[in-house]
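Bug #77: duplicate submission created two jobs. Keeping one. Sequence:
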Amino acid sequence: KVWGFHKILRRLKPSIMFMYLPSNNLIGGLLGRLHNVKLLLGGVRTSRLPKFHYRILYVAHNYLNHRTIFNNHEGFNHLTNQGFKTEKGVVIHNCFHPFSKPIGRTEKKPVTILTCARFEHFKDYESAIDAFSQVAKSSKTEVRYRILGTGSMKEQVLSWIEKYGVSDVVDIVENPEDVDQHIREADIYFC
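Kept job's structure:
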């Protein structure tokens, strides 16, 4: 794969490369330097990293890539405190933009709780579903939980919904066309 990527870079001669996984940051950074790519942009998509990933990204960020884009301030602050060069990092969060004015809510039933996130291990959906199930079972108000997402753990998320007995009050929406509309309709945003 690396040799094939090397051949593609030699043929295309890109001026910009963007990498967002630890191995991509390292391999892309090395090959980008070898091929004199003018702008190498690494990416960090989480605030905490396993040691092995930390070391890979540390080398890629500090020595190979020209900049690293962090998708959250927590990750940027944590990793720059751990030795990542502050001046090489930039935060472009991947959250929704705040609405221009507050959304007024009339009392309605059910109360809708919303989460927008990939179905991946580090998002800890089991805890979220467990917490929601406790709210749903003890609340005097009718509640629903809407999850906007997709990912490698979708089947596991569905099994947790069954395990905690909330399949009748949880909706999963994959790849919605209008995320903002779901946010406007929700009463509580649960990260």
